[in-house]
Each structure stands twice: as C-alpha cells, then as structure tokens.
C-alpha cells in the first residue's frame, strides 16, 4: 500500500468518524431535549402537588369555616 493509498484510507476513516460524531451529537441533543421535557413536567407536578397540600392545609384549619 503506497502513501497515497494510506492517506486516502485515513481521509475516508476521518470522514466516517465525523459522520459517527454528527449522529451521536444528534442523539445526545434529542436525549437532552427529552430529559429537559421530563424535568419540566416533574416540576409542574411537584408544584401542583405543593399547591394541593397548601389548599388542603388551609381547608383543614379550625375556624376557617
């Protein structure tokens, strides 16, 4: 294998690796977006639960009726 063949093979491998990196980057971005969406939903659920606890606490106080 001559030097030109080795350089061509190295260039081809580099391009293939770049494609892998790009695909992995897209997958990571997608996973990060999904995680952020789940985190936002969890915060909404926690906030709703805290508001429910507060409203139940107010309703159960003696003398508030």
Verbal overview:
With 65 residues, the protein is mainly α. The protein has one domain. It has one helix and no strands. The protein has one helix spanning 3-59. The radius of gyration is 28 Å and the shape is rod-shaped. The protein starts with a helix and ends in a 6-residue tail after the last helix. The model has no long low-confidence stretch (mean pLDDT 90).
Topology:
Elements: H1 3-59
Averaged pLDDT, please?
90
Roughly how many Å apart are the termini?
A: 92 Å
Number of distinct helices: 1
Number of DSSP E strands: 0
Into which percent range does the helicity of residues fall?
Answer: over 70%
The succession of helices and strands, N to C, reads: H
Query: Which structural class do you get from the secondary structure elements?
Result: mainly alpha
Shape category? rod-shaped
In short:
The chain is mainly alpha-helical.
What are the main properties of this structure?
65 residues, single chain, mainly alpha, 1 helix
């Amino acid at each position: 294998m001559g030097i030109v063949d080795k350089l061509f093979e190295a260039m081809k491998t580099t391009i293939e690796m770049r494609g892998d990196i790009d695909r992995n980057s897209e997958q990571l971005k997608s996973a990060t977006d999904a995680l952020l969406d789940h985190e936002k939903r969890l915060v909404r659920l926690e906030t709703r639960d805290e508001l429910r606890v507060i409203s139940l606490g107010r309703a159960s106080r003696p003398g508030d009726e």
